[in-house]
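The aim of this short unit is practical: by the end, you should be able to scan a pair of folded records and say something sensible about each. We start with the first protein, listed as its amino acid sequence and then its structure tokens.
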Amino acid sequence: MLRVGVFGTGHLGKFHLNNWKEIRNVEIAGFYDPSDKTAAAVEEKYAIPRYTNPALLMDTCDAVDIIAPTPAHFELCEMAVRKGKHVFVEKPLANDMEEARTLLKLVRESNVKLQVGHVERFNPAFLALNGMNLQPMFIEVHRLAEFNPRGTEVSVILDLMIHDIDIILHIVNSEVKNIYSSGVAVMTDTPDIANVRIEFNNGCVANLTSSRISMKKMRKMRIFQKDAYIGVDFLNKKSEIISLNTGETSDGFSFEIETMNGPRSILVRNPEVPEVNAIRMELEKFTESILYNRPTTVSELDGYRAMDIAHQILQKIKYNSINS
């Protein structure tokens, strides 16, 4: 039985609590939240003990789930790793790169598992592409959200865009060559809308737009590669693949178009989207990595790489604003 301590029981923390209660071989040891009002509601609903000292809670458990605000990530992660506890921490890994480097070193020197909560890796629409040979050469991403004060302690880059940065680094097998970015702070003191162009050494280009001041929600990624277009709708849990029809599959429907090289058959497929709860799945994978000594699905290095690109983007936005 794996004993888990939950740190942070706000909006997202309650989703984690609900899912932890459904996962086999897991017992919730207790929770830590500095808000008396929030804690009282959690104690009443979930009937689990509240700890007012995070160190004492860590001493009672095998693993910690950190869903606290980003500025608290480093202190809690460092404490947990030094105590030999496995760590699940929501994205981003830490508040700044110095903290992230310290955590990376601590985890490497320890015998603990650390997983970063990049939940879109477990989105059913993205999971539907498992087994597909993704070799993107151009990626277009739009992640738009209505304004919500929750999460605005960090920029839109670290709040929203980092999801897509992680996915892109995961599917593009190449190092980043150049980054171009622009952003504007509208409702907060940090960028609320941003556009970024990432160029990779293999020629792939990713164009990302993120906004938390939109009138509508959108979470779409379009992937273009040789002979294929792949559309992923993270919000509506749908995927689409349009490719040249090679006759290797009978799935989907096909139609012909005329080209300069003669007629071509185009195949349109909507791969089966698994019915999974993304949050539960990421927590289950974290649990399995501990119980069966497997690598975590989204490692501390993955979290560090996504943070590194996000902070390079922020630095370029800052430079552009100073020199404009």
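Turning to the second protein, read its sequence before its tokens, just as you did above.
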Amino acid sequence: MVNTWVAATVVAVIAGVVGFFVVLRGSAFPAHAIPNGAFAGAAAANVFGFNPLLGLGGCALLAALGIGALGRRGRQDVATALALVVMLAVGALFLSQSQEYEPQIYSLLFGEVLGVSTLELVPVAVLGAVCIAATIALYRPLMLSSLVPEVGEARGISAHRLEMAFLVILALATAMTVPVVGALLIFSLMIGPPAAARSFTDRPLPAMLLSVAIALLTVWLAIAISYLSNWPIGFFVGAFAALSYGTGRVWAALRRSRGAIPLTAATSTR
């Protein structure tokens, strides 16, 4: 359980930070496709008997570079969909050659957060630190490119190079988190809490910190309630991520309605 709490905390921090830019840049589709690339790499590692982290990282990186390269001269959504289809096909092929078909599918899709060993904590922490450092180094260019791309281009920021760099960060985050929470659940953590945070505040840095806080609360509550109820952690992670987003949308709607009341009143008195 201690390993579970530590690993889930690291994953939540990374998901909150990287997911903030995923939502800000409208990169939800790549954030869904790249974990499936990692899924195929882990399946290959299981068949050929090498380190699963190498398979995860290698295939996630290939998926990220493929999406970036193909999307440069065409529509990125088409390139992302193509990468997703290819990686799912490759993953299905490798899983069909595995002797542990059903358990392997479950662990790759939904993770094994309760089965994290002490030896696995070190690479998770190292990759997490690399992702955080890279995001901090690219924070200002990413903000300019995401919010005002014209200003970024005027300041010499290459949109394509920055997109490639961000996709590589996303691939590293995926390689680190898929063994813990799975290919499907990392998508919920990278989208739900950051989208909720953006509904609560428009300021970038507070929104990023709030995204991390919501992601942490999501995984901590999921672990605690799963332990007490014996229900799968994945259910609670997905449910709480969706609930946080719904709460954020309600808050944003209430804030807009409160701001509209004085304007309506002022108009009626003129």
